[in-house]
């Protein structure tokens, strides 16, 4: 890793690197390694993120575009969210997306296993002050790569509201293919909303990786 990181992060990357090797040698491979990209560090959400999450998530333009975010969003919601990210299904990874230069919390990105055991569902949100800088795409690429590399899965699915062109563009830039439409319940709206369903399969991901390398 060429990038210089603040000491605590560097330490965490080293620790997580060791954990990743342990996970790779065990059969469940359930770890969520810290991910470092050109501009971002994706790591587990910490207690210290509570204020930033509470501030950035308390935004109707964010809450109404994701399925399970309450609105208004309080500090208590943020604290409970951070606690929930520490538990859950094997293979679930929820990351805090942070600025690699200064550690600032920018948003969240993660994957959760689906019932069929070969599919993960991708989700993400970025705080509004940081929209339009390519962060969601960069974070999604890193999480997708990690998921296909470390898990025995065939598919990653993602759903976005039909009224969400920004997220649709992120989905297209990640190579997902349109599967169909459906309805998803929105906690913030207290109603079902129409969504588009997209899927990225392992073969397509491998092709995309080799095109990028070429
Ligand atoms: C959707 C979201 C994650 C995008 O984050 P971001 O960091 O701004 O995304 P990126 O910069 O990587 O890419 C956004 C793309 O959408 C495009 N875009 C944004 N708004 C758009 C609009 N109204 N119409 C068309 N394209 C739009 C941008 O131009 C960019 O494409 P480009 O790189 O080709 O120019 C962010 O707006 C967000 O968190 N929204 C609320 C929560 C949400 O929608 N989460 C996703 C749930 S499926």
Automatic annotation (TrEMBL):
<dbReference type="Pfam" id="PF13302">
    <property type="entry name" value="Acetyltransf_3"/>
</dbReference>
<keyword id="KW-0012">Acyltransferase</keyword>
<comment type="similarity">
    <text>Belongs to the acetyltransferase family. RimJ subfamily.</text>
</comment>
<protein>
    <submittedName>
        <fullName>GNAT family N-acetyltransferase</fullName>
    </submittedName>
</protein>
<dbReference type="InterPro" id="IPR016181">
    <property type="entry name" value="Acyl_CoA_acyltransferase"/>
</dbReference>
<keyword id="KW-0808">Transferase</keyword>
<feature type="domain" description="N-acetyltransferase">
    <location>
        <begin position="40"/>
        <end position="196"/>
    </location>
</feature>
<dbReference type="InterPro" id="IPR051531">
    <property type="entry name" value="N-acetyltransferase"/>
</dbReference>
<dbReference type="InterPro" id="IPR000182">
    <property type="entry name" value="GNAT_dom"/>
</dbReference>
<dbReference type="GO" id="GO:0016747">
    <property type="term" value="F:acyltransferase activity, transferring groups other than amino-acyl groups"/>
</dbReference>
């Amino acid at each position: 890793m060429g990038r210089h990181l603040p000491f605590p992060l560097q330490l965490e990357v080293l620790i997580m690197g060791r954990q990743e090797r342990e996970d790779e040698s065990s059969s469940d491979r359930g770890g969520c390694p810290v991910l470092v990209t050109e501009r971002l560090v994706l790591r587990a959400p910490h207690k210290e993120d509570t204020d930033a999450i509470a501030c950035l998530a308390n935004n109707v333009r964010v809450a109404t575009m994701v399925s399970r975010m309450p609105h208004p969003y309080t500090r208590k919601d943020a604290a409970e969210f951070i606690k929930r990210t520490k538990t859950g299904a094997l293979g679930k990874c929820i990351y805090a997306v942070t600025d690699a230069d200064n550690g600032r919390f920018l948003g969240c990105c993660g994957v959760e296993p689906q019932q069929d055991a070969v599919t993960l569902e991708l989700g993400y949100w970025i705080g509004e002050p940081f929209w339009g800088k390519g962060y969601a795409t960069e974070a999604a690429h890193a999480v997708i790569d990690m998921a296909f590399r470390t898990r025995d899965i065939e598919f990653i699915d993602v759903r976005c509201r039909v009224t969400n062109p920004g997220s649709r563009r992120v989905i297209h830039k990640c190579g997902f293919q349109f599967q169909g439409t459906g309805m998803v319940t929105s906690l913030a709206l207290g109603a079902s909303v129409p969504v588009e369903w997209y899927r990225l399969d392992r073969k397509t991901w491998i092709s995309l990786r080799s095109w990028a390398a070429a």
